[in-house]
Amino acid sequence: MSAVRAGERAAVLVEALPYIQRFAGQVVVVKYGGNALAGASDDDALALFAEDLVLMRAVGMRPVVVHGGGPQISDLMQRLGKVTEFRNGLRVTDAETVDIARMVLIGQVNPQLVAAVNVHGPIAVGVSGEDAGLIKAVARDPELGFVGDVTAVNPTILEGLLANGFVPVVATIGTDDRGQAYNINADTVAGAIAEALHAEKLVYLTDIEGLRRVVDDPASLIRQTTPDELDELVAEGIIAGGMIPKVASCVQAVRHGVRRAHILDGRIPHVLLLEIFTDEGIGTMVRSTDTDHTISPLEGP
Q1: Three-state SS for 74?
Q2: Residue 3: partners with Cβ closer than 8 Å, 6 or more residues away
Q3: Residue 13 falls within a domain, yes or no?
Q4: Is residue 8 a part of any domain in this protein?
Q5: Domain range spanning residue 157?
Q6: What pLDDT does residue 38 have?
Q7: Are β-strands 62-67 and 124-128 bridged in parallel, bridged antiparallel, or unpaired?
Q8: Are 183 and 171 in contact (CB under 8 A)?
């Protein structure tokens, strides 16, 4: 290794040091969706994501993963000859479809994520919102079937896993008081869990670089914003479609104690590390309206 290259690596470590100190012991909830894999092979993207989580945990952070699986659910439904119907961005979920969602989320996607992390050591544990009453839900709309809204989060099982050094990986199936299962939007669940755990950060990994004021103009990327500003962008129709649940969850979480929320491009290698441990950061950050616009490096991105 040349002296110049060694010096560059040392500079990176020095730049990361204040962030490592700042975030030691803090909970970071990361929502990992199927769309984050777009543009990269599943194996490569998943392996890089797992490395980020392991490094975060190794330097004292306490990551929690909340995952979706929309593309995988649609794929299995197609192979089973079942037509997928969406209304306002939500999948109409009859009894058969909720069983398919459970099979995919709990039986396929969750174990894949857990296995990818555990290549580096036995630290990831898969859980479902059904486990230990983690996610309580009610039906959102009778016309949507078994699509749920979160009514309560009981973080006891997650707190226990975090206290023992594990990385919880959460599948977003919730239940009502009768034990009926509901498929719940993973963006919404991630925000609710971040709020319940008093997380330092809530991070959404998706297939775009962040929020833009003009959809087709990369130069209009919004680097920093507040819940009030996001409310205005939604009202004006600038933020629409599938981004609305993410933005709504960011707004809710930040207004209820989560210090920062981020929307990042999950296709970028090691995007979590770039956001958390570098001065410039990446993507869109949502901060409290009461927070000073000037953020010092020691505060963290």
Answers
A1: helix
A2: none
A3: no
A4: no
A5: 18-299
A6: 40
A7: unpaired
A8: no
Q: Report residues of the chain scoring pLDDT below 50.
A: 37-41, 291-300
Residue with tokens 């770039």: 274
3-state helix, strand, coil in the chain (%, to 5): 45, 20, 35
pLDDT of 37: 46
The β-bridge relationship of strands 27-32 and 201-206 is parallel
Q: Count other Cβ atoms within 10 Å, centred on residue 8.
A: 10
pLDDT of 40 reads 46
**Alpha carbon distances (Å) from 209 to 137, 271, 281:** 31, 10, 12
Q: What CATH number is attached to the domain comprising 204?
A: 3.40.1160.10
Which uninterrupted H or E stretch holds 148? strand 147-153
- Whether 154 is covered by a domain: the verdict is yes
pTM reported for the whole predicted model: 0.89
Q: What are phi and psi of 184, to 5 degrees?
A: -125, 140
Q: How far, in Å, CA of 197 to CA of 199, rounded?
A: 5
Residue 287 phi, psi (nearest 5): -120, 165
- DSSP result, 241-295: TTHHHHHHHHHHHHHTT-SEEEEEETTSTTHHHHHHHSSS--SEEEE-TTS-S--
Name the nearest CA neighbour of 125 among 194, 61, 202, 64.
64
Residues with a catalytic annotation lie at: 31, 34, 70, 187, 246
Please, is 108 exposed, middle or buried when counting C-beta atoms within 10 Å of its C-beta (0-12, 13-18, 19+)?
Answer: middle
pLDDT at 33: 79
Q: Which residues fall within 8 angstroms of residue 148, CB to CB, at 6 or more apart?
A: 137, 138, 139, 140, 174, 176, 182, 183, 184
